[in-house]
Every structure is written in C-alpha cells, then in structure tokens.
Design goal:
By secondary structure, the protein is mainly alpha-helical. The chain has one domain (2-155): Ferritin, CATH 1.20.1260. The protein contains five helices and no strands. The chain has helices spanning 2-26, 48-67, 74-99, 103-127, 129-155.
C-alpha cells in the first residue's frame, strides 16, 4: 500500500505541474499565440494537452520507480533532485513562453530543460533502466518543442 501511495503522489505531482501552468497557457493560445508566425511543422493546438498529460504520467511513473528503491540512498536522493530540477524548468517554460510572451527567454529555459532531462536520465539509468525508458518520449517531445520554440523566435523577430 505504501508503494501505491508513492505512485499516486509521483504521478499527481507531475500532473499538477502541467495543471498549474495551464492558466498561463490557455489565455494566450487564442490571442497572442494565434497571431504568431509558426513553422509548417507546428502541430495543431489540440494535440498538446493529451501529449503533455501522457508525458507527465510517464514522468510520474518514472520517478516513482526511483523513489520506491529508497529515498535514504544518496544516489537516489541525487537522482530525484535532478528530476525536480528538470520539473522546475519545465514549469517555468510555460510562464516564459505563454505567460510573459518571451519566446527567446523560453528558448533559453528549454535548452536548460533539455540538459536537465538528459542528466536526470543518466542518473535514473544507474538505478532503473525502466525509469530511463519511460523518459524517452519526454526527451523526444521536448527536443521537438525546442526546435518549434527556436523556429517561432526566428520567424517572429
């Protein structure tokens, strides 16, 4: 039962990060974001919510698999610290891009986020390969989002 509680907490915290950034995002989509020049490969707006919901779920399961191995272990504490760090940059990207409407600042943030995801994955790999594999879709999506963010910066100079 204790492990199940950890799973629920892990997934809920990750999903909450997405939910907390929603007000910054939702208000800008029909106004500011709609007026931006976007690259041809920009996905339709409706795709973002289900993709992010799925990614946050996978992230939650991934960190749960690490956490359940025992938080008293120094290596696990460090791995979770890296995870929390990347989650921090993930949250602030929405604020920079949509809330403050600063795509260049958001681009800098997402570059740091990418590095933090890779470092988290390296830490997770040592503890649970499954945790690493669960983060691969996240890494791929954020890589795509980085290219999209950079394109928006360049097209809207």
């Amino acid at each position: 039962m204790r492990d199940f509680s950890k799973l629920i907490i892990s997934v809920t915290v990750c999903e909450l990060i997405g939910l907390l950034s929603t007000p910054f995002t939702i208000s800008s989509i029909p106004t500011w974001y709609a007026g931006l020049i976007k690259p041809f490969f920009s996905p339709p707006n409706w795709i973002f919510a289900p993709v992010w919901t799925t990614l946050y779920f996978l992230m939650g399961v991934s960190v749960y698999l690490i956490w359940r191995k025992g938080i008293e272990n120094k290596e696990i504490k460090i791995a979770i610290y890296y995870f929390i760090t990347q989650l921090f940059f993930n949250f602030f990207w929405s604020i920079f891009f949509f809330g403050l409407r600063l795509p260049l600042v958001a681009f800098i943030d997402i570059i740091v986020l990418l590095a933090a995801i890779v470092l988290t994955m390296m830490k997770f790999y040592k503890i649970s390969k499954v945790s690493l594999y669960l983060l691969i879709p996240y890494l791929l999506w954020v890589s795509f989002a980085t290219i999209l963010n950079m394109s928006i910066v360049l097209l809207n100079r």
